[in-house]
Design brief:
2 domains, single chain, alpha+beta, 152 residues, 5-stranded antiparallel β-sheet, 3-stranded antiparallel β-sheet
Length: 152
């Protein structure tokens, strides 16, 4: 469903219940109720494609420095509703307050399906980092829209 970087190992894999994980693969499977937060190895076993799960994990590791700089990158604006908005790489990222917590949504116009961060976060910076993870996931897993062709 998605992959997020927690910044450091701080969660136990919900599948094997033993591995401490930093990069969380959110998985759904008919045999389990709800969404499981898993490490790469367990995610690979769940989807019967260990290479694919390890590739996602490797991508997250290589994105770690870009992700760290993402909350402070140039281009963030605050709109009239107080939401933080960034247009980057063909994506529109909106980070918004949900009660006392923060969440984010990432979309790639004209694709209609927006992707929301899985969790709510205590800080704006943490929500922006999760938005980066969501954008990275979309880059790898969501087909890019076909280019427009003008007919004259």
């Amino acid at each position: 469903m998605n992959v997020e970087d927690l910044g450091e190992p701080q969660m136990t894999c919900e599948m094997c219940e033993s591995a401490e994980i930093r990069f969380v693969h959110f998985m759904e499977n008919d045999r389990y109720p709800g969404t499981l937060s898993c490490g790469a190895i367990c995610a690979g076993h769940m989807e019967s494609d260990l290479a694919q799960a390890e590739a996602r994990d490797k991508k997250m590791r290589s994105n770690a420095s870009r992700r760290k700089r993402f909350p402070d990158r140039a281009g963030w604006k605050v709109n009239q509703k107080g939401n933080h908005v960034l247009k980057a790489n063909g994506y529109r990222i909106t980070v918004f307050k949900k009660g006392i917590l923060w969440a984010a949504v990432v979309s790639r116009p004209p694709v209609a399906t927006p992707y929301f961060t899985r969790e709510k976060f205590p800080t704006l910076e943490a929500a922006k980092m999760a938005a980066f993870d969501t954008m990275s996931f979309m880059e790898e897993n969501v087909p890019k829209p076909a280019p427009y062709h003008l007919i004259w």
